[in-house]
Design goal:
about 200 residues; mainly beta; Jelly Rolls; 2 domains; five-stranded antiparallel beta sheet; about 40% strand; globular
Length: about 200
């Protein structure tokens, strides 16, 4: 009798454990938080930006610098919020091949720069790869950026508006990065999920 009760308890514990795993996975949806809301422990810091964290927000007011993920990604969906002034220069870089010195020479950049001199690389563009499909002005408000990269196909949206879509094969895999290249730049809720 005790053995039977013990076995039933084990089975029930196993079922509870198994049923708990899918619920947790469904809640997270496969997303990994790159910014934990507290510190920069998930990032390598390069350059001269004055990164700081306050109230769940990363901020920099001094150029030029990058927060570079410690992991590399090939096919993924990246999302995060950015706040800038109209004069600021920020962005999300991805598939970086030279993480010690990120830039458009060795990876892709979804640019956030309303007043860029060359407007073909302004806010919403993937610089030197895809001109913006619409004029989206990011200054003075939070903008949710979503970048999907699957093989050579890349799509970017800002607050649900598609701003860039392109196929390009120059870079296939690498870390992702947050950029501070001038003015006040703030980031929050940065997370990524790998696509299979």
């Amino acid at each position: 009798m005790r053995t039977t009760a013990f076995l039933i308890a084990l089975v029930l514990a196993g079922v509870a454990g198994v049923s708990h795993v899918p619920v947790a996975a469904a809640q997270s949806g496969g997303w990994t938080k790159l910014f934990n809301g507290k510190d920069l422990s998930n990032w390598n810091v390069t350059g001269n930006a004055d990164w700081r964290v306050s109230d769940g927000v990363i901020e920099a007011t001094k150029a030029r610098g990058f927060l570079v993920s410690k992991q590399s990604y090939g096919d993924f969906e990246l999302r995060g919020d950015i706040w800038v002034t109209a004069d600021s220069n920020g962005g999300f870089l991805f598939r970086i091949t030279k993480p010690e010195d990120p830039g458009i020479e060795n990876g892709y950049e979804l640019n956030i720069n309303d007043k860029r001199a060359d407007q073909t690389g302004r806010t919403g563009s993937i610089v030197n790869v895809a001109k913006p499909l619409v004029q989206y002005d990011s200054g003075g408000k939070w903008t949710t950026v979503v970048i999907t990269a699957k093989g050579p196909h890349m799509v970017a949206t800002l607050n649900g508006i598609k701003t860039a879509e392109v196929d390009d094969t120059k870079y296939a895999r690498g870390p992702v990065s947050l950029q501070a290249a001038g003015g006040i730049v703030r980031y929050r809720n940065v997370e990524i999920r790998e696509l299979r």
